[in-house]
Structure formats: structure tokens, C-alpha cells
Amino acid sequence: MENRKEMKNWFNNLGLNHPLVIAGPCSAETEDQVVKIAHQLKDTDTSIMRAGIWKPRTRPGNFEGVGAIGLKWLQRAKEETGLKIATEVANKNHVDLALKADVDVLWIGARSTVSPFIVQEIADALQGTDKIVLVKNPVNPDLPLWLGAVERLHDANIKNLGVIHRGFSTYEKTKYRNNPEWQIAIDLQNEFPDLPLILDPSHIAGRRDLIFDICQTGLDLNFDGIMVETHYDPDNAWSDAKQQITPAVLDKMTIDLKIRKETT
Ligand code: PEP
Ligand code: MN
């Protein structure tokens, strides 16, 4: 891949904090929920608010997201707090709607990265965009599939490109929901040293008590940021309830992880 050196420059050029903190609920649930969480995150180290509005559920019958109406809620959260906003896109229609709503960060989920057809469709829809695009690893521990998705997006002339490590599924029972398999992220980093690498401890952990240690490991491995699922009432979240933390817990965690910048 050409121009690999350019890849991390965008991170600095956009004035993003390093390490970057992305936080917000697994799913947008109601307008009040999105706006309330945004206001709570405004006073933390969070620069970008995440919320899924199209939710790729492994099995049917679970909450599948509020859909396009959630874009309006995110826009309001951005207007009121100044946070950048992020959501998952899984097809061309999602991309078109997210771009129209001026979403700052679009991420490709683990269940989409496994499909070269879907990744190519998204890459074509995003051709030349100056939005930030983050690619989660595929659900299965397959480095070439992850690299291939990065290459498709890079070939579509997407400059502000990064990756998210969210762990890998395994049939074995482990303490993690998705095994970190750190070596795969390290190998990706070696392949593309200038591609910003964000850690998603929430989907690796599956439970909130593991999140701090996973973040510490990621920072020790020079990750460029974290994306943490955050909700004011985690136990009653409509998806991924066990792994979400409150904005107050996130705030303390960034102090203990020494992410917080000293203000002089
Ligand atoms: C999410 O971020 O809520 C999500 C569905 O993640 P993943 O694609 O990593 O499973
Ligand atoms: Mn989730």
C-alpha cells in the first residue's frame, strides 16, 4: 500500500487528543437518553460520542436499533455539547444517510468486515470522503480479511482511516466475550505502522469489571485510543447491558489510566 506514512498524520491534523477517547452507548435508545449521555460525557476526556442506530444482532428477536431517526438525536447531542459523533454503517444506504446528517466518524462493524462485498460497497459509497472511517476487525481471527478491508477503503481514497480492535469470537469458553488475540493487532500495527489503532475493550470484555485491565494492556501496546460503551444506566441498556459503564466510571478510569492531560 502506498502513502502509508500519511495515515497517522490525519489524527494530528484534526487536532484529536492522543490517546483518543470515544464513548457512548452501545445503542441509541431515545432522544433523551442520547442527549443526557452526551452532556455527561462532555465533562470527561471524551472527544467523540458513539451510538449505534442500526444494530447488527447475531440472532433475530433482539433490539435492532432505532434507525435513521437516531441521526437527528446525535446531531442534537453534537450541537449541544460540541462532541463529534460516530455511528456504525453496514451498507450504502446507511452511508448516504450518515453523510447527509454530517456524522463525523463512521465505523464498520465486525460482522461487516468479514464480507468483502459489503466492505467494497461501503468503500464505494465513501469514495474520497474526508470523514473519519474506522474499521473493526472481523469477528473471526483472520488478519488478511482485516487488512483487505483497510486496503479497500484506502483504495477508495479515504484518508482519515483507522482501525478498531474488538477481539475475536471463539467457540472455546474464555473469560472474555471476544478473545483479544493481541498478536493479531500487533501484526496489523506492524503491517501499517501509521494507521491509528483504537481499542474497544467493551466488546472484548463482555463484562464491565474487565475493562480497565484491557485498556491498560492496549495502552501499554501503544494503542492510539479507546472506544468504551457508556450509559447512565448500564444495567437497563437495551443492548450489551453487562459491559457498559457510566460516564462517571469512565472519567475515573481515564485518570487512573493516566489518559487525562494535565491542565496547567
Ligand atoms: C458495537 O459497537 O456496538 C458493535 C455491534 O460492535 P461489533 O461490531 O464489534 O460487534
Ligand atoms: Mn455493543
TrEMBL record:
Superkingdom, taxonomy of origin: Bacteria
Protein name: chorismate mutase
Record flagged with keyword Chloroplast: no
Top EC class for this record: isomerase
Presence of the UniProt keyword Transferase in the record: yes
Keywords noted in UniProt: Transferase
Segment of the intact protein contained: 1 to 264 of 360
Record-listed E.C. numbers: 5.4.99.5
